[in-house]
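Loading example: each entry is read as two labelled lines plus one structure line.
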Amino acid sequence: MPNIQFDADGRLKHFIGIEGLPHHLLFKILDTAQTFINPVDHTIQKVPILRGKTVFNLFFEPSTRTRTTFELAAKRLSADVVNFNMESSSNKKGESLTDLLHNLEAMYADLFVVRHHQSGAAYFIAQHLSPQTRLINAGDGQHEHPTQAMLDMYTIRHYKHDFVPLKVAIVGDIFHSRVARSQIYALSTLGVAEIRVICPKTLSPVGIESMGVKRYHDLTAGLKNVDVVIMLRLQYERMTSALLPSECEYFRCYGLTHKALEHAAKDAIVMHPGPINRGVEIASSVVDSPRAVILQQVSFGIAVRMAVMAMILGLYEQ
Amino acid sequence: MGCERMERMTLSGGRVLDPLTGFDAITDVHIANGKIIALGDKPADFIADSVLDVRQQVVVPGLVDLCARLWENSTQQKAHICSETRAASLNGITTLCCPPDMQPIIDNSAALELLQQRNHRSVLLLNLLPLAALTKELAGEHLTEMYTLTRMGCVGVSNAQMPVANSQVWKNALEYAATYDLTVFIYPRDAWLGRDGCVHESALSTRLGLRGIPALSENVALARDLLLVEQTGVRAHFCRLSTAQSVDMIAQAQAKGLPVTADVALHQLFLTENDNRHYDTACHVYPPLRSDRHKTALRQGVKSGVISAICSDHQPQSPDSKACIYAESSPGISALDSFLPLSLKLAAELNMSWHDLFQRISQQPAQILRQPCLGLNVGAQADLCVFDPEAVWSLQKADMHSMRYNTPFLSWEFKGRVTHTLLNGQRSFA
């Protein structure tokens, strides 16, 4: 990707995707996020960094948790937040996306947080914004979901401290997952020892190996000695043809159970970007076990999104 | 025109190049009553009304474009028949074939008559040859009155980019067309593989998160179609090949003696999927731009003659239909203004003679359309293209004749530019 993410001085301007971002910048995001979290009780205090700034959450695709964590992140930074429900007011009235954006910019928007069902939407929107307006991609189609990947990296660092020796397995619907793509870029840039994707062939995108991953179609073989297991849900809303026979068979082959987890390293953590589907990709007993750090991921997400917002609005050191 | 006497003209001092006969010499071309009456010395009784000095220029038969979409009905008209036929003419094209998937679809005589009426003012600019739909509404269910439509002026039948999923209907349609010795123009495309895709399926489509159209979609369809061509004996022309395997399959079919020809869109010979890597909607085309390997094979297919025609695949689109998110943008390139210059560039890059090049963009497409093809022989219709081979220029919006500028070739440097087009011995523009 050409980096329209950077300004002329090489500073992060928009946060569209992890692809092409340098190692030091990813660490800077993690370090910045860490400054927002109280080391003693892990709470996040409100700070006045974005006072006077206006953040628009533009969600063209339904979302509750991502939008809420972005909203919380902006509020903790003292920004004014407007949630724009695109389901009811968007292009359904015939207005083009660019006209809509220019209208919102005229309301003195400083930052757009955009989720869209089409890949490349964030890139397109960033190209059409006026120079002072910033954008964070909150997920575009099957392309990238960079803040999710960064909060996952934060979680991994929190529990594992160092990326370099880690073996990481991403299990499930890789084909439709923007999260997996962003995670692979991030893990690869942060230099983990090995990235594996585990899925049936119908959910494995063409050429995924070119992103530096090993492909597995057998869960137990793929989980062998991994330090981090990232589970993905099946994205039925994006499936357009017969890809799987049933949830039952999928769970039998790829569902994460304690038995399957025995193949991973003894201290392996289990992550999931949510929403989870118990009994489809992951057994309830695993979700509820101490191995799962799924809720911690959600909490860390607020600080990571605060870090990205503060950095791209130029109000925090990069 | 009636009894009005047609202009007698001499094209003086140009390099006259005939891909049909291989003739290549600096000489004069004398034209009367819309036909070439002599090359070289003028006949004794010939007095030209005008002499066009074409020294340092090349005179070739008018270009024949196998596919250009000329207009589409929409609230914002993308372009219209007058603007686009004029643009084609200004770019050296004298015969142009348009596919049936316009609005209205050319699947009945009323729709064809409407097209012919709309084209009324353009007849002085070029020969517009439509294809008729093979099935009603291109829906792949019922046959059109293809015999009637071809007698009314359509030069062949096609289901355009709509695959006929029902193999029985498809076989019937080919057999029915074969009954009347009609040429079927086939876009090899599987009805389901890559149905919701917009780019070549590859590691790049995975990175971009865009749905892919696998090469397999074309290959599977072409394999099936070739078996049906063999079975039905229909004369088939395969349109817009985009894969290396297609070139091989067509070569094998031709070696077996099947009545098949094939073309490629000119942009497929210059661009690859990498041109999409920044979600550039100007490069959103159908079939999609594929990898370098496919591009190289297509170029070889053109050079070897397996692919006997190159077309513009002109598809004007309004700025709004391109200024949007990639998957939601309309496919197509406004290609008339780059047709000859890009073709010349191709010949230079492939080390292909102009003789071979003009076979691919004039003589052989005319044969595919089963049009009279006498080249530049005496008695041939004087449909001519004259170009300055040394003119160096770059494509700019302001200089484009098409109403639409959706092209990735803006700012490309070219050598060679059309200076005159003659249709029926008359200059389309000065």
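Chain B has a mean pLDDT of 94.
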